[in-house]
Amino acid sequence: MRTDQFYRNLMRLLHDTFPGYEFLVTATSTKRDLTRFANSEIHQNISQETLRMEGVFIKDNKMAVVSSGDVSMEGLKKLKEQVDEILENTEELNFKFKMPPLRMEYPYYMDEEDMLNVHPLKRRELFELIRSIADENNLKAFGYVANTESEVSVMSTSGLYLYHSATYADFNTVLLNENMTGSYTSATAKNFEQLQIEDKVREIVTLARKNVPEEEIDPGQYTVILGPEAVADIFSYFVYGALNGFAYETKTSSAVKYLGKKIGPNFLTFKDDPEDDRQIKYPFDSVGTKRTTFPVIENGEFKNILYSYQTALLFGKEPTGHTVSMLQPYMAFVMNPVINGGNMTKEVLFSKVDRGIYIHRIHYMNIVDPAKLSLTGMTRDGLFIVENGEITKAVKNMRFNVNFYKLLENLKGLSKETYNPAGYSTPFIAPYALVESFNFTSKSDH
Amino acid sequence: MKEILKEALEFLKAKDVEYADARYEEHQREEIEVESAHLKSFSYSQDKGVGIRVLFDGGWGFAATDTLSKNSVMKAAELALEIAKESARTAKEKVRLAEEPSHVDTFKSPAQVDPFSISKAEKIELLKEATSVMMKNEKVKRAVGTMDFRKIHKVFVNTEGSDIEQDITISGAGIVAFAVSEEGFQVRSYPSSFGGDYATRGWEFVQEMKLIENAEKVAGEAAALLSAPEIEPGEYDIIIDGQQMSLQVHESCGHPTELDRVFGSEISFAGGSFLQPELLNKLKYGSDIVNITADATLEGGLGSFGYDDEGVKARMSYLVKDGLFVGYLMDRQTAAKLGLRSNGAARADSWSNMPIIRMTNINLLPGDKTLDELISEIDYGFLLATNKSWSIDDMRVNFQFATEIAYEIKGGKLTGKIFKNPVYYGKTTEFWNSCDGIANKDFWHIWGVPNCGKGQPGQVMWVGHGTSPARFRKVKVGVAR
Question: Cβ contact (<8 Å) for B90 and A42?
């Protein structure tokens, strides 16, 4: 870790190198160590240390967007040449760029002591734990265990200076049986202990043993229970495909028809919540906008979409704290996604199903029609018949085509229990979901 | 820098490693986005660093650093060794590498005009003009033009004596029209969707696209799609245009032939493959006219290079020959398991990542028909063009693609009628065995796909696909319900 002082020095260096310019810069250092395994053997074991500085440099309301992994004097001089060339060759922005207001806060230190300078031995031990559970049950283990240290600093010529450091751990595991089918689990948490690797891996042993599909179901509409991994995946596409403020303002988002309307049952609340205990908190976004709990769907109502800093400037809106990268200034993303637990326990949720399908995980989802937010994808790592509230047997994987908004109309229950499957560097807190009329459209071979 | 890398390797040799390599890379990138005749973003990125890979007692270790002092590189070498020892301590099956001669060489991709030498203003102006033309169509509410240029300098040395320097230039560009109505919106892209077309070539590649000249047609089709019907779901004879074929090859042939997937390395993430070794030289993957190669030597292909990222010389090899599944994409580790030599598919997207098996240029070789001949042999069907959406299962069997547009074919001719939101789906070998016509070399083009994701940590690789339009019989087509 480079510490707060390094970034303060970088800010001085930027002031020296870019006199007379306005700038808004994010510098991020990441040290990520990852041990990956397949067939119960480690096949990749790495350590990466990277620094990235991204920023906008403004002169006469012209903008250059730059990024550099080299923040040495020489690297910044080279960058300045590019900044000057871009500014000379571009026109004024079609909106007035305003720097974020002056704001200085104490650094946020969110490191966990035992997650700093983790020796590769620690990950080997965790891998061996997973392998031992697999061995005990005559299964093979596939997946990874990783630990990350990160620092983010945002600085600007308008007096903004913010810093936070954090650590987190993440893992995933597939356990496969002799049939080469099995089950999956994953988590992201603040430290290895909170990953609860042993509990999570043991929890999927039964499903992994049971997943020997000999039958297949026909395409059609089914009552399904979606596991938390599947729920998180589907809502990720809602974030990606419907929440961008730029697409909304240019009428190229499905949100145009639905924002402000009731799109789901009262028990559905989906938010960006840096305050959730299990989240890896992002206290500010990449332009320093303070991040607070932000409802997207509240009690079934589609309340808000996301405006990056630049989209907000362009369309006269307030930035919502979701700018993820200076290099993609119109991109906005939910960084700490949380779907609230629902209206019944997981056990009761399953008991509602006399005959239906349990979808454990989804593979390779994509948006078929962005105007409607129609989604397709395949099931993977376990598709099971549910009879009288119990998972009884595995069936072969199926392709589905569903419309996200129709899926919410057909959402009949969420489990009170929520889980923390691994998302994009933060967990995606999600429950089990009971959905009617889920549309399977074609079969696969396995 | 090369001397420091070599010192690191000497240090590792003295520690009795079986094998080590060190890679220094410098990346420069320029991305331009123009929206409806206004510059939306002009960005420049630079990045450099070193990745060191160590094989010790059959276990891998890899460490990467962007601090380029000798001290820091040596520390990365030590860390890679330490990690490799941890891998080795738990290994039941030791890693072995296929033989590869050492190479001392240089490679430069064939850019005639360095895209970084073209003024930024000229590039912006071209996109502004193309988007202006699209915006003249009143139904087009957004017109986007993008360019993306990269320069990558790589130095590779290993403990077997290889010493390779490569300079790769990448150019890409494209335009997109969004037509909007009360009912929704439709999109048309040119020459390809999701950022346009790419190649390891220079500015001349962008000029050849003739973006401005094609802008009016792109806008017109996007507008016309707003009121176009959807195809009644059913089985139809279809022709898939070259651009969509590139995605079809990518998903249903490129990925399943990656031997690391076959051996399970991606089971928990990108998935496995139905192409298990017992099917090699036995499975009728496609009809007799289907020939698919992996070829990193194609001049200008986005997946072209001189040497892969473990120093294996670029080459051509068959994956499917006369319809028979005959080969895999391999690195040295997986090739050794089959008793073969690597065919040069180990690639890393950055100095900070360890090379894994990636596509190079995966190509459906041209057939012997013209596009008109392909069309003339269809009573009723569709020509599907330009990828809009893709999805395939984790074993690469069940796929579903959406394209931007479908052109109706009736009585062996294009009728001029278009359909919106077309989707087709099927299973890989059934689909490829239904191929009964491939357009000839005059219609063949190497498409660039710059965004292929794989691996944990995630890597985004640039790959190429030489394809021409091809015809398939009785394919399930319909709008996703």
Answer: yes
The shortest C-alpha distance from B407 to chain A (Å) reads 18
Q: Chain B contacts of A91, Cβ < 8 Å? A: 39
CATH fold for domain B2-225:
PmbA/TldD fold (3.30.2290)
E-only strand ranges, A291-397:
294-298, 301-302, 337-339, 355-369, 374-387, 390-394
> Which range is least confidently modeled, A100-109, A381-390, B102-111, B160-169?
A100-109
User: Helix B2-14 and helix B70-90: axis angle, to 10°?
Assistant: 40
Residues 6+ apart with CB under 8 A from A19: none
The one-character DSSP state at B228 is: P
Residue B187 backbone phi and psi in degrees, to 5 = -125, 140
Query: Are B427 and A128 within 8 A, CB to CB?
Result: no
Chain A interface mutation, best of B57, B86, B135, B451, highest count of A Cβ atoms under 10 Å: B86
pLDDT band at B183 (very low <50, low <70, confident <90, very high): confident
A389 contact B CB<8A: no
Please answer whether residues B110 and B300 qualify as being in contact, where contact means their C-beta atoms are separated by less than 8 angstroms.
yes
Residues in chain B closer than 8 A to A63 (CB atoms): 41-42
Query: In the predicted model, what is the mean pLDDT of residues A33-44?
Result: 97
Band (pLDDT 50/70/90 cuts) for residue B481 is: low
Contact check, Cβ <8 Å, A174/B268: yes
* Facing residue for B124 by CB, picked from A32, A44, A89: A89
Q: Percent of chain A, pLDDT > 90? A: 92
Q: Give the pLDDT score at B479.
A: 62
Look at residue A283 and tell me whether its pLDDT is greater than 80. yes
- The two three-digit tokens of residue B10, written as one number: 């000497």
pLDDT at B43 over 80: yes
pLDDT of residue A83: 96
Best of A229, A362, A364, A374 to disrupt the B interface by mutation (most B CBs within 10 Å)? A364
Is there a contact between B66 and A123 if contact means CB atoms under 8 Å apart?
A: no
The CATH H-level (homologous superfamily) assignment of domain A4-203 is: PmbA/TldD superfamily (3.30.2290.10)
Asked if A277 is an interface residue toward chain B (Cβ–Cβ < 8 A), one would say no
**CA dist., res. B470 & res. B239, Å (int):** 5
Cα B33 to its chain centre, rounded Å, is: 21
| Å between B40 CA and nearest CA of chain A | 8
CB B24 within 8 A of CB B154: yes
CA B50 to chain centroid, in Å, comes to 24
What residue segments make up the domains of chain A, in order of their start? 4-203, 213-446
Question: Taking CB atoms and an 8 Å limit, are A78 and B46 in contact across chains?
Answer: yes
Q: Which residue stretches of A90-171 are H helix?
A: 120-136
Give the domain ranges of chain B. 2-225, 234-477
For CA atoms A266, A272, A273, A276, give the dihedral sign: positive
